[in-house]
# Entry
Amino acid sequence: MLSGKRFRLQEETIAIETFGRKRLATQVPAGSVVTVESDPRPDDLRMVDVRWDGRKLVMFADDIEKRGEQVAEADDSNWG
# Structure
């Protein structure tokens, strides 16, 4: 389970942001910390909601697990 955990990305990783009915791909830079807000959705077990830089995004759970390093709650450097 990823929900509630924070990860520092070791490499730039793609994410999707929604604006109304539009979806826009964006790159989350290496070194950024993302907070996972939900476990994978029942209709798509590959995607999770994350919070980064005050923005709500969707990312592949696999990308977070492979490209991210879990960080402790007390580690607020580069908060995302």
Observations:
- DSSP finds one helix and seven strands in the chain.
- The two ends are 19 Å apart (CA to CA).
